[in-house]
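Entry for the shared binder. Reason: the reviewer on the internal report wants the predicted structure included alongside the sequence.
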Amino acid sequence: MRRIVSCLAAMVTAASLAACAPATARQAAQTAYLVFYASGRQADALDLIGDAGGTAVRAEPKLGYVLAHASGPAFVKAVGADPAVVGVSTDRRIGYASAARTFPDAGSFTSGGRSDPLTERQWDMKMIGADRAHAKVPGSRQVLVGVIDTGIDGKHPDIAPNFNRELSRNFVTDRPKDENGETLDGPCEVSGCKDPVDQDDDGHGTHVASTIASPANGVGVVGVAPGVQLVSIRAGQDSGFFFLKASLDALTYAGDAGIDVVNMSYYVDPWLFNCRNNPSDSAEERLEQRAIVTGMQRALDYARKKGVTLISALGNGGTDLGSPKLDKVSPGYPRGEERVRKVDNSCLNVPAESSGVISISSVGPSGRKAVYSDYGLEQTDLAAPGGDALDGKAASPARSILAAAPEAVLRAKGRIDKSGKPRGADVVRDCTSGTCSYYQYLDGTSMAAPHATGVAAILVSRFGKPGPGGLSLPPATVEDYLYRTAMRKPCPAPRAYVYKVYGEKTTHVCEGDAARNGFFGRGIVDAYKAATFKP
Protein backbone atom coordinates (compact mmCIF):
# COMPACT_ATOMS: atom_id res chain seq x y z
CA MET A 1 0.00 0.00 0.00
CA ARG A 2 2.80 2.42 0.86
CA ARG A 3 4.54 1.48 -2.40
CA ILE A 4 1.41 2.54 -4.30
CA VAL A 5 1.28 5.84 -2.41
CA SER A 6 4.93 6.56 -3.11
CA CYS A 7 4.54 5.79 -6.81
CA LEU A 8 1.41 7.93 -7.13
CA ALA A 9 3.01 10.83 -5.27
CA ALA A 10 5.97 10.77 -7.63
CA MET A 11 3.59 10.57 -10.57
CA VAL A 12 1.71 13.68 -9.44
CA THR A 13 4.93 15.56 -8.83
CA ALA A 14 5.95 14.77 -12.39
CA ALA A 15 2.58 16.12 -13.59
CA SER A 16 1.79 12.82 -15.26
CA LEU A 17 -1.57 11.08 -15.08
CA ALA A 18 -0.27 7.75 -16.41
CA ALA A 19 -0.89 4.76 -14.15
CA CYS A 20 2.07 3.47 -12.13
CA ALA A 21 1.69 0.08 -13.75
CA PRO A 22 -0.47 -1.47 -16.47
CA ALA A 23 -3.87 -2.62 -15.20
CA THR A 24 -4.04 -6.33 -14.50
CA ALA A 25 -6.87 -8.52 -15.73
CA ARG A 26 -8.28 -8.50 -12.20
CA GLN A 27 -8.23 -4.69 -12.10
CA ALA A 28 -9.91 -4.48 -15.48
CA ALA A 29 -12.82 -6.50 -14.09
CA GLN A 30 -13.15 -4.17 -11.10
CA THR A 31 -15.18 -0.98 -10.86
CA ALA A 32 -13.54 2.40 -11.45
CA TYR A 33 -14.28 4.91 -8.69
CA LEU A 34 -13.64 8.64 -8.40
CA VAL A 35 -12.69 9.32 -4.77
CA PHE A 36 -12.95 13.01 -3.89
CA TYR A 37 -10.90 14.00 -0.89
CA ALA A 38 -11.12 16.97 1.48
CA SER A 39 -8.69 19.83 1.00
CA GLY A 40 -5.14 18.75 1.79
CA ARG A 41 -6.13 15.14 2.44
CA GLN A 42 -4.82 13.39 -0.68
CA ALA A 43 -2.32 11.25 1.26
CA ASP A 44 -5.04 10.15 3.68
CA ALA A 45 -7.32 9.27 0.77
CA LEU A 46 -4.58 7.17 -0.80
CA ASP A 47 -4.10 5.30 2.47
CA LEU A 48 -7.83 4.69 2.75
CA ILE A 49 -8.00 3.36 -0.81
CA GLY A 50 -5.22 0.86 -0.14
CA ASP A 51 -6.59 -0.20 3.25
CA ALA A 52 -10.00 -0.84 1.66
CA GLY A 53 -8.47 -3.17 -0.92
CA GLY A 54 -8.47 -0.71 -3.80
CA THR A 55 -5.76 0.34 -6.22
CA ALA A 56 -4.98 3.99 -6.85
CA VAL A 57 -4.62 4.43 -10.63
CA ARG A 58 -4.55 8.16 -11.37
CA ALA A 59 -4.79 11.43 -9.45
CA GLU A 60 -6.16 14.82 -10.44
CA PRO A 61 -4.86 17.31 -7.87
CA LYS A 62 -6.46 20.23 -9.75
CA LEU A 63 -9.90 18.93 -8.76
CA GLY A 64 -8.95 16.89 -5.71
CA TYR A 65 -9.81 13.31 -6.60
CA VAL A 66 -8.18 9.92 -7.14
CA LEU A 67 -9.27 7.39 -9.76
CA ALA A 68 -9.20 3.97 -8.09
CA HIS A 69 -10.07 0.39 -9.01
CA ALA A 70 -11.91 -1.72 -6.45
CA SER A 71 -14.55 -4.40 -6.06
CA GLY A 72 -18.00 -4.04 -4.57
CA PRO A 73 -19.90 -1.63 -2.33
CA ALA A 74 -17.78 -2.57 0.70
CA PHE A 75 -15.00 -0.42 -0.75
CA VAL A 76 -17.31 2.61 -0.98
CA LYS A 77 -18.55 2.10 2.56
CA ALA A 78 -15.05 1.79 3.99
CA VAL A 79 -13.55 4.74 2.13
CA GLY A 80 -16.57 6.99 2.48
CA ALA A 81 -16.80 6.58 6.24
CA ASP A 82 -13.67 8.67 6.80
CA PRO A 83 -13.90 12.50 6.89
CA ALA A 84 -10.89 12.68 4.57
CA VAL A 85 -13.26 11.62 1.77
CA VAL A 86 -16.15 13.88 0.75
CA GLY A 87 -17.67 11.78 -2.03
CA VAL A 88 -17.30 8.58 -4.04
CA SER A 89 -18.77 7.94 -7.48
CA THR A 90 -18.33 5.20 -10.02
CA ASP A 91 -16.76 6.40 -13.26
CA ARG A 92 -19.98 5.97 -15.21
CA ARG A 93 -22.66 8.09 -16.76
CA ILE A 94 -23.80 11.11 -14.79
CA GLY A 95 -25.58 13.11 -17.44
CA TYR A 96 -27.80 13.24 -20.44
CA ALA A 97 -28.22 15.97 -22.97
CA SER A 98 -31.26 18.04 -22.00
CA ALA A 99 -33.99 16.31 -23.96
CA ALA A 100 -34.73 18.06 -27.22
CA ARG A 101 -38.13 17.55 -28.82
CA THR A 102 -38.78 17.00 -32.49
CA PHE A 103 -42.10 17.35 -34.26
CA PRO A 104 -41.72 15.41 -37.51
CA ASP A 105 -45.08 16.07 -39.14
CA ALA A 106 -46.54 18.94 -37.17
CA GLY A 107 -47.69 21.52 -39.68
CA SER A 108 -46.33 24.04 -42.12
CA PHE A 109 -43.19 26.15 -42.12
CA THR A 110 -43.05 29.91 -42.04
CA SER A 111 -43.60 31.76 -45.29
CA GLY A 112 -41.01 31.61 -48.03
CA GLY A 113 -40.05 29.18 -50.75
CA ARG A 114 -37.10 26.83 -50.93
CA SER A 115 -34.99 29.53 -52.56
CA ASP A 116 -35.46 31.89 -49.59
CA PRO A 117 -32.58 32.13 -47.12
CA LEU A 118 -33.09 29.97 -44.04
CA THR A 119 -32.45 32.99 -41.86
CA GLU A 120 -36.04 33.99 -42.63
CA ARG A 121 -37.08 30.99 -40.53
CA GLN A 122 -35.00 32.10 -37.55
CA TRP A 123 -37.60 33.90 -35.44
CA ASP A 124 -35.31 33.32 -32.49
CA MET A 125 -32.57 35.55 -33.90
CA LYS A 126 -35.08 38.31 -34.58
CA MET A 127 -36.45 38.03 -31.02
CA ILE A 128 -33.05 38.75 -29.46
CA GLY A 129 -31.92 41.22 -32.14
CA ALA A 130 -29.10 38.99 -33.35
CA ASP A 131 -29.93 39.75 -36.98
CA ARG A 132 -29.27 43.45 -36.29
CA ALA A 133 -26.30 42.76 -34.02
CA HIS A 134 -24.41 41.01 -36.82
CA ALA A 135 -23.83 44.31 -38.60
CA LYS A 136 -22.39 45.83 -35.41
CA VAL A 137 -20.43 42.99 -33.80
CA PRO A 138 -20.40 39.64 -35.62
CA GLY A 139 -17.88 38.37 -33.11
CA SER A 140 -14.10 38.22 -33.04
CA ARG A 141 -11.99 35.31 -34.29
CA GLN A 142 -10.02 35.75 -31.08
CA VAL A 143 -13.00 34.57 -29.02
CA LEU A 144 -13.14 30.83 -28.31
CA VAL A 145 -16.48 29.21 -27.46
CA GLY A 146 -16.38 25.69 -26.07
CA VAL A 147 -19.30 23.33 -26.63
CA ILE A 148 -19.32 20.62 -23.95
CA ASP A 149 -21.68 18.18 -25.59
CA THR A 150 -21.87 15.13 -27.86
CA GLY A 151 -19.38 16.60 -30.32
CA ILE A 152 -19.60 18.95 -33.31
CA ASP A 153 -19.86 17.99 -36.98
CA GLY A 154 -16.86 20.09 -37.97
CA LYS A 155 -17.32 19.24 -41.63
CA HIS A 156 -20.85 20.65 -41.85
CA PRO A 157 -20.84 23.45 -44.49
CA ASP A 158 -22.47 25.83 -42.04
CA ILE A 159 -20.00 25.14 -39.22
CA ALA A 160 -16.66 24.29 -40.87
CA PRO A 161 -15.49 27.93 -41.41
CA ASN A 162 -15.68 28.60 -37.64
CA PHE A 163 -14.60 25.18 -36.36
CA ASN A 164 -11.25 25.06 -34.54
CA ARG A 165 -10.07 21.50 -35.06
CA GLU A 166 -6.66 22.07 -33.45
CA LEU A 167 -8.10 23.03 -30.06
CA SER A 168 -11.02 20.58 -30.10
CA ARG A 169 -10.81 17.50 -27.88
CA ASN A 170 -12.77 14.28 -27.36
CA PHE A 171 -12.75 12.99 -23.78
CA VAL A 172 -15.08 10.10 -24.58
CA THR A 173 -14.54 6.52 -25.72
CA ASP A 174 -17.61 4.99 -27.35
CA ARG A 175 -19.19 2.14 -25.41
CA PRO A 176 -21.13 -0.27 -27.63
CA LYS A 177 -23.05 -1.76 -24.67
CA ASP A 178 -23.82 -0.82 -21.08
CA GLU A 179 -23.04 -2.82 -17.94
CA ASN A 180 -26.05 -5.05 -18.51
CA GLY A 181 -25.19 -5.89 -22.11
CA GLU A 182 -27.84 -3.57 -23.54
CA THR A 183 -27.00 -1.35 -26.53
CA LEU A 184 -25.55 1.99 -25.44
CA ASP A 185 -23.62 3.72 -28.25
CA GLY A 186 -23.85 0.88 -30.74
CA PRO A 187 -20.98 -0.39 -32.90
CA CYS A 188 -17.84 1.75 -32.88
CA GLU A 189 -17.31 3.74 -36.07
CA VAL A 190 -13.51 3.85 -35.80
CA SER A 191 -10.73 1.61 -34.50
CA GLY A 192 -10.29 2.08 -30.78
CA CYS A 193 -13.80 3.54 -30.43
CA LYS A 194 -12.41 7.07 -30.14
CA ASP A 195 -14.23 9.31 -32.63
CA PRO A 196 -12.41 12.17 -34.39
CA VAL A 197 -12.82 15.61 -32.86
CA ASP A 198 -14.96 16.79 -35.79
CA GLN A 199 -17.58 14.05 -35.47
CA ASP A 200 -20.99 14.09 -33.77
CA ASP A 201 -22.96 10.84 -33.97
CA ASP A 202 -25.85 12.21 -31.89
CA GLY A 203 -26.49 15.63 -33.44
CA HIS A 204 -27.21 17.50 -30.21
CA GLY A 205 -23.85 19.24 -29.99
CA THR A 206 -23.92 20.26 -33.65
CA HIS A 207 -27.32 21.94 -33.25
CA VAL A 208 -26.05 23.82 -30.18
CA ALA A 209 -22.86 24.92 -31.95
CA SER A 210 -24.81 26.13 -34.99
CA THR A 211 -27.03 28.38 -32.89
CA ILE A 212 -23.96 29.91 -31.26
CA ALA A 213 -21.83 30.57 -34.32
CA SER A 214 -22.94 29.33 -37.72
CA PRO A 215 -21.13 31.75 -40.06
CA ALA A 216 -22.75 34.32 -42.33
CA ASN A 217 -21.50 32.55 -45.45
CA GLY A 218 -24.54 32.36 -47.71
CA VAL A 219 -25.35 28.85 -46.48
CA GLY A 220 -28.35 27.87 -44.35
CA VAL A 221 -28.65 29.76 -41.07
CA VAL A 222 -26.63 32.34 -39.15
CA GLY A 223 -25.67 31.98 -35.49
CA VAL A 224 -25.81 34.58 -32.74
CA ALA A 225 -22.07 35.34 -33.04
CA PRO A 226 -21.09 34.25 -36.57
CA GLY A 227 -17.50 35.49 -36.32
CA VAL A 228 -16.23 33.57 -33.28
CA GLN A 229 -14.49 30.20 -33.19
CA LEU A 230 -16.14 26.97 -32.07
CA VAL A 231 -14.22 24.42 -30.03
CA SER A 232 -15.67 20.96 -29.50
CA ILE A 233 -14.97 19.70 -25.98
CA ARG A 234 -16.75 16.41 -26.14
CA ALA A 235 -18.00 14.84 -22.92
CA GLY A 236 -21.12 13.04 -24.19
CA GLN A 237 -21.44 9.54 -25.59
CA ASP A 238 -22.95 8.86 -29.01
CA SER A 239 -26.10 7.87 -27.15
CA GLY A 240 -26.28 11.25 -25.40
CA PHE A 241 -25.20 9.99 -22.00
CA PHE A 242 -22.42 11.66 -20.02
CA PHE A 243 -19.83 10.18 -17.66
CA LEU A 244 -18.54 12.06 -14.64
CA LYS A 245 -14.85 11.96 -15.45
CA ALA A 246 -15.36 13.14 -19.03
CA SER A 247 -17.30 16.15 -17.72
CA LEU A 248 -14.54 16.94 -15.24
CA ASP A 249 -11.88 16.58 -17.92
CA ALA A 250 -13.82 18.83 -20.30
CA LEU A 251 -14.15 21.67 -17.80
CA THR A 252 -10.51 21.38 -16.74
CA TYR A 253 -9.40 21.51 -20.37
CA ALA A 254 -11.59 24.54 -21.04
CA GLY A 255 -9.80 26.39 -18.27
CA ASP A 256 -6.32 25.36 -19.39
CA ALA A 257 -6.93 26.02 -23.12
CA GLY A 258 -8.05 29.64 -22.76
CA ILE A 259 -11.70 29.06 -23.70
CA ASP A 260 -13.82 32.18 -23.11
CA VAL A 261 -17.33 30.71 -22.77
CA VAL A 262 -18.62 27.15 -22.50
CA ASN A 263 -22.12 25.92 -23.22
CA MET A 264 -23.40 23.02 -21.11
CA SER A 265 -26.73 21.82 -22.47
CA TYR A 266 -27.05 18.75 -20.31
CA TYR A 267 -28.17 17.80 -16.83
CA VAL A 268 -26.59 15.28 -14.52
CA ASP A 269 -27.77 11.79 -13.82
CA PRO A 270 -28.21 9.00 -12.61
CA TRP A 271 -29.78 11.38 -10.08
CA LEU A 272 -32.00 14.07 -11.57
CA PHE A 273 -31.75 15.73 -8.16
CA ASN A 274 -28.49 15.22 -6.29
CA CYS A 275 -29.12 15.08 -2.54
CA ARG A 276 -26.27 15.02 -0.03
CA ASN A 277 -28.26 13.41 2.78
CA ASN A 278 -31.61 12.10 1.61
CA PRO A 279 -32.92 9.58 4.20
CA SER A 280 -34.46 7.45 1.44
CA ASP A 281 -31.05 6.86 -0.17
CA SER A 282 -28.46 4.29 0.88
CA ALA A 283 -25.08 5.35 2.23
CA GLU A 284 -23.48 4.44 -1.10
CA GLU A 285 -26.05 6.48 -3.03
CA ARG A 286 -25.49 9.51 -0.82
CA LEU A 287 -21.75 9.30 -1.37
CA GLU A 288 -22.29 9.12 -5.12
CA GLN A 289 -24.50 12.22 -5.13
CA ARG A 290 -22.05 14.10 -2.92
CA ALA A 291 -19.28 13.19 -5.34
CA ILE A 292 -21.27 14.56 -8.29
CA VAL A 293 -22.10 17.82 -6.52
CA THR A 294 -18.57 18.25 -5.14
CA GLY A 295 -16.67 17.11 -8.22
CA MET A 296 -18.64 19.18 -10.69
CA GLN A 297 -18.43 22.26 -8.45
CA ARG A 298 -14.65 21.90 -8.20
CA ALA A 299 -14.37 21.59 -11.99
CA LEU A 300 -16.67 24.56 -12.57
CA ASP A 301 -14.72 26.64 -10.05
CA TYR A 302 -11.45 25.70 -11.73
CA ALA A 303 -12.68 26.73 -15.16
CA ARG A 304 -14.23 29.97 -13.92
CA LYS A 305 -11.05 31.00 -12.09
CA LYS A 306 -9.25 30.45 -15.39
CA GLY A 307 -11.58 32.93 -17.10
CA VAL A 308 -14.30 30.67 -18.49
CA THR A 309 -17.88 31.96 -18.43
CA LEU A 310 -20.18 29.02 -17.64
CA ILE A 311 -23.63 28.80 -19.24
CA SER A 312 -26.07 25.93 -18.70
CA ALA A 313 -29.48 24.79 -19.85
CA LEU A 314 -31.95 24.86 -16.95
CA GLY A 315 -33.73 21.59 -17.75
CA ASN A 316 -36.87 20.34 -19.46
CA GLY A 317 -38.95 18.84 -16.67
CA GLY A 318 -41.41 21.72 -16.31
CA THR A 319 -40.41 21.76 -12.63
CA ASP A 320 -40.14 24.57 -10.10
CA LEU A 321 -36.55 23.89 -9.05
CA GLY A 322 -37.03 26.05 -5.98
CA SER A 323 -39.61 23.65 -4.62
CA PRO A 324 -39.16 20.14 -6.05
CA LYS A 325 -41.35 17.47 -4.45
CA LEU A 326 -40.78 14.12 -6.11
CA ASP A 327 -38.04 12.58 -8.20
CA LYS A 328 -39.57 9.78 -10.25
CA VAL A 329 -36.70 9.07 -12.65
CA SER A 330 -33.68 8.45 -10.41
CA PRO A 331 -31.40 6.61 -10.40
CA GLY A 332 -31.73 6.60 -14.16
CA TYR A 333 -28.81 4.28 -14.84
CA PRO A 334 -28.63 1.36 -15.24
CA ARG A 335 -32.09 1.36 -16.75
CA GLY A 336 -34.88 -0.10 -14.69
CA GLU A 337 -33.64 1.05 -11.26
CA GLU A 338 -35.80 4.17 -11.08
CA ARG A 339 -37.96 4.71 -8.01
CA VAL A 340 -40.10 7.47 -6.55
CA ARG A 341 -38.38 9.43 -3.79
CA LYS A 342 -39.18 12.67 -2.00
CA VAL A 343 -36.80 15.58 -2.61
CA ASP A 344 -36.57 19.20 -1.47
CA ASN A 345 -34.67 22.38 -2.28
CA SER A 346 -31.48 21.04 -0.69
CA CYS A 347 -31.23 18.63 -3.63
CA LEU A 348 -29.45 20.11 -6.64
CA ASN A 349 -29.92 19.86 -10.38
CA VAL A 350 -26.30 19.96 -11.57
CA PRO A 351 -24.81 21.98 -13.25
CA ALA A 352 -27.85 24.28 -13.53
CA GLU A 353 -27.90 24.89 -9.76
CA SER A 354 -24.14 24.83 -9.26
CA SER A 355 -22.41 28.00 -8.08
CA GLY A 356 -20.96 30.28 -10.73
CA VAL A 357 -23.15 28.95 -13.54
CA ILE A 358 -25.54 31.14 -15.57
CA SER A 359 -28.68 29.05 -16.06
CA ILE A 360 -31.09 29.66 -18.93
CA SER A 361 -34.83 29.00 -19.16
CA SER A 362 -36.62 28.70 -22.50
CA VAL A 363 -39.26 30.83 -24.20
CA GLY A 364 -41.36 30.24 -27.30
CA PRO A 365 -42.03 32.68 -30.16
CA SER A 366 -44.83 34.44 -28.26
CA GLY A 367 -42.38 35.18 -25.44
CA ARG A 368 -44.08 32.92 -22.92
CA LYS A 369 -42.01 30.47 -20.88
CA ALA A 370 -41.98 27.19 -22.75
CA VAL A 371 -44.24 24.58 -21.20
CA TYR A 372 -41.38 22.10 -20.76
CA SER A 373 -38.86 24.57 -19.29
CA ASP A 374 -37.83 24.26 -15.66
CA TYR A 375 -38.04 27.46 -13.66
CA GLY A 376 -37.46 28.89 -10.19
CA LEU A 377 -36.76 32.25 -8.55
CA GLU A 378 -33.37 31.17 -7.23
CA GLN A 379 -32.42 29.06 -10.23
CA THR A 380 -33.36 31.05 -13.35
CA ASP A 381 -30.71 33.61 -14.29
CA LEU A 382 -31.79 34.50 -17.83
CA ALA A 383 -34.20 33.36 -20.52
CA ALA A 384 -33.68 32.82 -24.25
CA PRO A 385 -35.60 31.40 -27.20
CA GLY A 386 -35.53 27.63 -27.02
CA GLY A 387 -38.60 26.88 -29.08
CA ASP A 388 -42.09 25.75 -28.18
CA ALA A 389 -43.91 23.97 -30.99
CA LEU A 390 -47.06 24.12 -28.86
CA ASP A 391 -46.94 27.91 -28.49
CA GLY A 392 -49.94 28.46 -30.75
CA LYS A 393 -53.29 27.04 -31.81
CA ALA A 394 -51.73 24.01 -33.48
CA ALA A 395 -48.35 22.36 -33.08
CA SER A 396 -45.77 23.51 -35.62
CA PRO A 397 -42.02 22.99 -35.96
CA ALA A 398 -41.76 26.57 -37.24
CA ARG A 399 -42.01 27.63 -33.58
CA SER A 400 -38.95 25.56 -32.73
CA ILE A 401 -35.27 26.40 -33.24
CA LEU A 402 -33.71 25.71 -36.63
CA ALA A 403 -29.99 24.86 -36.64
CA ALA A 404 -27.48 22.60 -38.34
CA ALA A 405 -27.79 18.81 -38.22
CA PRO A 406 -25.23 16.16 -39.30
CA GLU A 407 -26.34 14.44 -42.48
CA ALA A 408 -25.04 11.07 -41.25
CA VAL A 409 -27.18 11.27 -38.12
CA LEU A 410 -30.31 12.17 -40.07
CA ARG A 411 -29.71 9.25 -42.45
CA ALA A 412 -29.13 6.85 -39.56
CA LYS A 413 -32.39 7.97 -37.93
CA GLY A 414 -34.35 7.72 -41.18
CA ARG A 415 -35.06 11.45 -41.23
CA ILE A 416 -33.94 11.74 -44.87
CA ASP A 417 -34.40 9.21 -47.68
CA LYS A 418 -31.76 7.65 -49.96
CA SER A 419 -31.93 10.59 -52.36
CA GLY A 420 -31.41 13.06 -49.51
CA LYS A 421 -34.98 14.35 -49.37
CA PRO A 422 -36.20 15.18 -45.83
CA ARG A 423 -38.87 12.98 -44.29
CA GLY A 424 -41.03 15.22 -42.13
CA ALA A 425 -41.38 18.95 -41.67
CA ASP A 426 -38.77 19.17 -38.91
CA VAL A 427 -35.84 18.59 -41.32
CA VAL A 428 -34.76 21.20 -43.89
CA ARG A 429 -32.30 20.80 -46.77
CA ASP A 430 -30.50 23.80 -48.24
CA CYS A 431 -28.74 23.36 -51.59
CA THR A 432 -28.63 27.00 -52.71
CA SER A 433 -24.82 27.13 -52.58
CA GLY A 434 -24.42 24.02 -54.72
CA THR A 435 -23.54 21.79 -51.77
CA CYS A 436 -26.50 20.50 -49.78
CA SER A 437 -26.56 20.90 -46.00
CA TYR A 438 -29.15 19.87 -43.46
CA TYR A 439 -30.93 21.54 -40.56
CA GLN A 440 -33.44 20.47 -37.95
CA TYR A 441 -36.08 22.12 -35.79
CA LEU A 442 -35.68 21.24 -32.10
CA ASP A 443 -37.17 22.43 -28.80
CA GLY A 444 -35.48 22.53 -25.41
CA THR A 445 -33.55 24.54 -22.87
CA SER A 446 -30.63 22.95 -24.72
CA MET A 447 -31.58 25.25 -27.58
CA ALA A 448 -32.06 28.29 -25.30
CA ALA A 449 -28.64 28.15 -23.61
CA PRO A 450 -26.58 28.59 -26.81
CA HIS A 451 -28.40 31.86 -27.56
CA ALA A 452 -27.09 33.20 -24.25
CA THR A 453 -23.67 31.72 -24.99
CA GLY A 454 -23.60 33.56 -28.32
CA VAL A 455 -24.50 36.85 -26.63
CA ALA A 456 -21.72 36.25 -24.09
CA ALA A 457 -19.32 35.76 -27.02
CA ILE A 458 -20.40 39.14 -28.44
CA LEU A 459 -19.60 40.78 -25.09
CA VAL A 460 -16.16 39.16 -24.92
CA SER A 461 -15.56 40.29 -28.51
CA ARG A 462 -16.34 43.89 -27.57
CA PHE A 463 -14.77 44.22 -24.15
CA GLY A 464 -12.21 41.43 -23.89
CA LYS A 465 -8.52 42.14 -23.42
CA PRO A 466 -5.62 40.08 -24.79
CA GLY A 467 -5.28 36.90 -22.76
CA PRO A 468 -4.85 33.12 -22.99
CA GLY A 469 -6.25 31.87 -26.29
CA GLY A 470 -6.97 35.36 -27.67
CA LEU A 471 -9.32 37.73 -25.87
CA SER A 472 -10.37 37.38 -22.26
CA LEU A 473 -13.06 38.98 -20.10
CA PRO A 474 -13.62 38.03 -16.43
CA PRO A 475 -16.69 35.78 -16.05
CA ALA A 476 -18.12 38.11 -13.39
CA THR A 477 -18.01 40.98 -15.90
CA VAL A 478 -19.62 38.88 -18.65
CA GLU A 479 -22.38 37.89 -16.24
CA ASP A 480 -22.94 41.50 -15.18
CA TYR A 481 -23.16 42.69 -18.79
CA LEU A 482 -25.52 39.86 -19.74
CA TYR A 483 -27.88 40.92 -16.96
CA ARG A 484 -27.61 44.62 -17.77
CA THR A 485 -28.39 44.10 -21.45
CA ALA A 486 -31.25 41.61 -21.01
CA MET A 487 -34.82 42.57 -21.93
CA ARG A 488 -36.75 42.72 -18.66
CA LYS A 489 -39.88 40.60 -18.67
CA PRO A 490 -42.27 40.42 -15.70
CA CYS A 491 -44.28 37.42 -14.60
CA PRO A 492 -47.51 36.81 -16.50
CA ALA A 493 -50.77 38.03 -15.05
CA PRO A 494 -52.09 36.06 -13.34
CA ARG A 495 -48.86 34.58 -11.98
CA ALA A 496 -50.34 31.09 -12.07
CA TYR A 497 -49.97 30.49 -15.80
CA VAL A 498 -52.12 27.70 -17.22
CA TYR A 499 -50.74 25.70 -20.15
CA LYS A 500 -53.07 23.67 -22.32
CA VAL A 501 -51.28 20.69 -23.80
CA TYR A 502 -53.09 18.13 -25.92
CA GLY A 503 -56.37 18.64 -24.05
CA GLU A 504 -54.78 18.68 -20.59
CA LYS A 505 -53.93 21.59 -18.32
CA THR A 506 -50.84 22.21 -16.22
CA THR A 507 -50.11 25.28 -14.09
CA HIS A 508 -46.73 26.90 -13.38
CA VAL A 509 -46.52 29.72 -10.83
CA CYS A 510 -44.10 32.59 -11.45
CA GLU A 511 -42.51 34.34 -8.45
CA GLY A 512 -40.58 37.62 -8.38
CA ASP A 513 -40.74 40.94 -10.21
CA ALA A 514 -39.58 42.38 -13.50
CA ALA A 515 -36.02 42.72 -12.22
CA ARG A 516 -35.82 39.01 -11.50
CA ASN A 517 -38.40 36.26 -11.52
CA GLY A 518 -38.67 32.51 -11.73
CA PHE A 519 -39.76 32.32 -15.38
CA PHE A 520 -37.34 34.74 -17.06
CA GLY A 521 -34.67 35.54 -14.48
CA ARG A 522 -33.19 38.97 -15.24
CA GLY A 523 -34.85 38.91 -18.65
CA ILE A 524 -34.47 37.57 -22.18
CA VAL A 525 -30.96 37.89 -23.60
CA ASP A 526 -30.53 40.76 -26.09
CA ALA A 527 -27.78 40.41 -28.70
CA TYR A 528 -28.34 43.85 -30.22
CA LYS A 529 -28.13 45.64 -26.90
CA ALA A 530 -25.01 43.63 -26.04
CA ALA A 531 -23.50 44.79 -29.32
CA THR A 532 -24.31 48.46 -28.70
CA PHE A 533 -24.56 49.23 -24.98
CA LYS A 534 -22.04 51.32 -23.08
CA PRO A 535 -21.15 50.02 -19.60
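Summary line for the report: Residues 217 and 243 are 36 Å apart (CA to CA).
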